């Protein structure tokens, strides 16, 4: 499962051409997001979701067929968002103490 | 009052004494030096610049002085001084004037964080400006010099100063330091331009300063609105090419060419985004200066239509 961090709410978005230029106040960094990356963040707006679920939502948002978005495109975008502190991974089966 | 109202002797006396006050765009400076060669070049090239009122607040107190160490007896050297600090290694005394000019630019670049500072040349016509964000060596000073001697007003050959309150560009029409091959290019293009003395063997090669047209200096208080972002690249023998550029690419290049983008945080992001939204963006590749000037002249009527 992946979930958006609280930093996502602070992002400042500007669209140029088919890219998003995004300012992240928590790191004072500016990022260039392609449509896949930006749609992943939007897909997390309702809370935690599985990676396949997020991928399906992104495919729908981009007008792609099911499995039209390859994992080679999807997973690096997820990894980058994790690096930026914008999404977190949640354990699928958390161990109970 | 302008510098030309002082004769050479008065000018040198002020420079060697309490300092000469001079205004460059939004900045008041006090300049001190007892080097006669510097006084000669400065008196000639700063002639059209205004002298602020005596009670004006000064942004920078700069000067060029002999080294304090034993070096002064071994080699004739000169040090750039700002607020009693000497931030650079000494220069040979013959290069005192270019050292002063570079030092003033350094002061602006490192101490003017109330403005967004783009590393960009800028010219204006009809209240609308072209900004040329570029890295050193891309030919922005040469192109800018040609344009200001072809009907455009100089904003700056080095700094795109953006006022955060409204995104207006503040002019900083300083001397333009042409280097190496650019010197002869401009001498051929506009022989009647006001050229200073040649300084050979500086850290940047041969340097000649060009005085901006007097109209640009007189109008240093008139702000301008950015209308075009043009990313120039001079390449020997290259055919002229002025191609529209994607705004996302332009954003990255403008932000990457800013002196203090990180310092200003979200303010810088907002200012660059608004500028890119407002401007038409182009990549310019050229080798012939006259062709490049003509192409940029054509942008203006096209925008009017």
Short description:
The complex is a heterodimer of chains A (97) and B (305). Chain A is an alpha+beta fold and 97 residues long.
Give a verbal description of the structure.
The complex is a heterodimer of chains A (97) and B (305). Chain A is α+β, with helices and mostly antiparallel strands and 97 residues long. Chain A has a domain at 2-8 and 35-89. Helix content of chain A is 35%, strand content 23%. Chain A has three helices and five strands; from the N terminus they run E-E-E-E-H-H-H-E. Chain A has helices at residues 35-43, 51-62, 71-83, and strands at residues 2-4, 12-16, 19-24, 29-33, 87-89. In chain A, strands 2-3-4 form a three-stranded antiparallel sheet. In chain A, strands 1-5 form a two-stranded antiparallel sheet. In chain A, a hairpin with a 4-residue loop joins strand 3 (19-24) and strand 4 (29-33). The two termini of chain A are 20 Å apart. Chain B is of the alpha+beta class. Chain B has two domains: 3-111, no CATH class; 116-304, no CATH class. Helices cover 34% and strands 30% of the residues of chain B. Chain B has eleven helices and 16 strands. Chain B has helices spanning 8-16, 36-45, 71-74, 96-111, 140-148, 181-189, 214-218, 247-256, 261-264, 266-278, 289-304, and strands at residues 20-24, 27-33, 60-65, 77-82, 91-92, 116-125, 128-133, 153-156, 159-162, 169-170, 176-179, 194-202, 205-211, 225-234, 241-244, 280-286. In chain B, strands 6, 7, 8, 9, 10, 14, 15 and 16 form an eight-stranded mixed sheet that branches. Chain B has a five-stranded mixed sheet with strand order 1-2-3-4-5. A three-stranded antiparallel sheet of chain B has the order 11-13-12, sandwiched between helices. In chain B, a hairpin with a 6-residue loop joins strand 9 and strand 10 (169-170). In chain B, helix 8 (247-256) packs across helix 10 (266-278). Chain B starts with 7 loop residues before the first helix and ends with a helix. The relative contact order of chain B is 0.13. Classes of the chains: A alpha+beta (97), B alpha+beta (305). The interface between A and B is medium-sized, with 12 and 16 residues.
């Amino acid at each position: 499962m992946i979930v958006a961090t609280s930093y996502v709410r602070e992002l400042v978005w500007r669209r140029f051409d088919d890219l998003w230029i995004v300012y992240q106040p928590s790191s004072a960094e500016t990022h260039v997001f392609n449509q896949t990356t930006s749609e992943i963040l939007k897909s997390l707006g309702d809370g935690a979701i599985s990676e396949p679920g997020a991928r399906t939502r992104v495919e729908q948002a981009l007008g792609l067929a099911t499995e039209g978005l390859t994992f080679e495109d999807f997973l690096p975008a997820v990894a980058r968002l994790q690096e930026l502190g914008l999404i977190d991974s949640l354990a699928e089966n958390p161990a109970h103490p | 009052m302008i510098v030309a109202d002082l004769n050479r002797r008065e000018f040198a006396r002020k420079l060697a004494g309490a300092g000469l006050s001079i205004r460059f765009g939004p900045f008041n400076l006090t300049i001190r030096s007892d080097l006669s060669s510097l006084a000669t070049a400065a008196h000639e090239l700063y002639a059209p610049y205004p002298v602020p009122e005596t009670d004006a607040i000064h942004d920078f107190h700069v000067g060029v002085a002999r080294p304090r160490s034993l070096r002064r007896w071994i080699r004739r050297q000169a040090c750039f001084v700002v607020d009693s600090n000497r931030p650079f290694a000494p220069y040979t005394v013959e290069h005192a004037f270019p050292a002063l000019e570079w030092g003033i630019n350094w002061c602006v670049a490192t101490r003017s964080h109330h403005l967004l500072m783009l590393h960009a040349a800028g010219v204006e016509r009809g209240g609308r400006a072209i900004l040329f964000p570029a890295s050193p060596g891309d030919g922005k000073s040469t192109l800018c010099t040609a344009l200001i001697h072809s009907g455009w007003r100089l904003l700056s050959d080095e700094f795109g100063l953006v006022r955060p309150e409204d995104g207006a560009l503040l002019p900083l029409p300083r001397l333009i330091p042409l280097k190496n091959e650019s010197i002869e290019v401009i001498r051929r293009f506009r022989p009647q331009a006001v050229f200073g003395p040649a300084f050979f063997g500086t850290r940047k090669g041969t340097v000649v300063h060009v005085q901006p047209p007097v109209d640009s200096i007189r109008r240093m208080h008139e702000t301008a609105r950015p209308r075009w972002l043009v990313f120039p690249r001079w390449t020997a023998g290259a055919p002229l090419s002025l191609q529209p550029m994607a705004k996302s690419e332009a954003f990255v290049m403008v932000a990457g060419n800013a002196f203090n983008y990180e310092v200003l945080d979200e303010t810088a992001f907002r200012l660059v985004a608004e500028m890119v939204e407002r401007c038409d963006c182009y990549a310019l590749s050229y080798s012939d200066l006259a062709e490049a000037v003509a192409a940029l002249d054509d942008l203006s009527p096209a925008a009017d239509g």
